[in-house]
Design a protein that fits this description.
There is one protein chain. The longest helix is centred in the N-terminal third of the chain and has 22 residues. The protein has one domain. The strands form 3 sheets. Strands 1, 2, 3, 4, 6, 7 and 8 form a 7-stranded mixed β-sheet that branches. The chain has a two-stranded antiparallel sheet with strand order 5-11. Helices cover about 40% and strands about 20% of the residues. It is α+β, with helices and mostly antiparallel strands. Helix 4 runs antiparallel to helix 6. The two termini are about 15 Å apart.
Length: about 270
């Protein structure tokens, strides 16, 4: 609904360039990740049906990025994260283009800035072993549940635990989620294992990300990739060269339903 996928991609690429500019100006490492990394490796650009861009930052580096952004934000760009808006339903950061629309109709009543954006995912250095892994996953899943319950206010079928959690004031849910995420940061270790807050939470190897410098082409421009793209993608997707069935070759509307897209008009005009 609204613009073509190519027009949406153009806005997202402009946000990627804004992100690149901040990172290069402040020496902040970042990496293409998720579907964007897969697109760079398999298609040398966007996956043809994808409608977002995913980046990965070490958690402390993402904090540095947010601080640098606050000091000198690019014109017409904003950040959205759960520390800034208690209704934010995810524990990562979005970089958004103001005056645009990317609004799932089913969730339009949730007080968010439904603008075209890109996702900035943190990863945390965790200790080796079951206990460290279990605590990291528990903190992430707890924060994800506390924040994600926001979406259930617009859903008909709601699990009993979500019904219970959403009885809490939104500010309480936010503070509890931030406390859990801060625990991930406080207990970072110098081991080989890391935990990335993408694709439901994934344990990866630090050397797959932070090893020798690696770069690749995405839509005609060179961007940093994880040090071992093959190991990273195999951990995320399995056989990532295998295309999904045709009925799954869709963007976020596959899960969120019909989305209003507009590269020139604010989502507020559609409310």
């Amino acid at each position: 609904m609204g613009n073509t996928l190519e027009e949406i991609h153009a806005v997202q690429l402009s946000l990627l360039e804004d992100c690149r500019h901040i990172c290069e100006a402040h020496g902040i490492p970042y990496y293409l990740a998720q579907g964007t990394l897969l697109g760079a490796v398999r298609h040398r650009g966007f996956i043809p049906w994808d409608d977002d861009i995913d980046l990965l930052f070490q958690a402390d580096d993402l904090d540095r990025f947010m601080a640098a952004f606050a000091q000198d934000p690019p014109p017409g760009v904003s950040l959205e994260h759960c520390g800034q808006n208690p209704w934010t339903p995810y524990p990562w950061v979005k970089l958004k283009r103001q005056g645009t629309a990317s609004m799932p109709l089913a969730y339009r009543e949730i007080p968010l800035d439904w603008e075209i954006g890109i996702d900035l995912f943190p990863y945390y250095r965790v200790g080796d072993g079951r206990l460290a892994h279990g605590l990291a996953r528990a903190r992430f899943l707890g924060a994800k549940r506390l924040l994600g319950v926001t979406l259930t206010f617009c859903e008909k079928k709601v699990k009993w635990l979500s019904r219970l959690i959403r009885r809490l004031p939104v500010a309480w849910r936010q503070r509890a989620a931030l406390w859990l995420l801060e625990g991930l940061k406080r207990h970072q270790a110098e081991g080989e294992d890391v935990f990335a807050l993408c694709r439901g939470g994934k344990f990866l190897k630090r050397s797959w990300i932070e090893g020798a410098r690696c770069s690749g082409i995405f839509e005609g421009r060179e961007y940093p990739l994880p040090a071992d793209p093959d190991a990273f993608l195999a951990a995320m997707f399995g056989d990532y060269w295998l295309l999904p069935p045709e009925d799954q070759r869709k963007g976020h509307d596959l899960k969120l339903g019909e989305i209003v897209w507009d590269t020139e008009k604010s989502y507020r005009d559609y409310l």
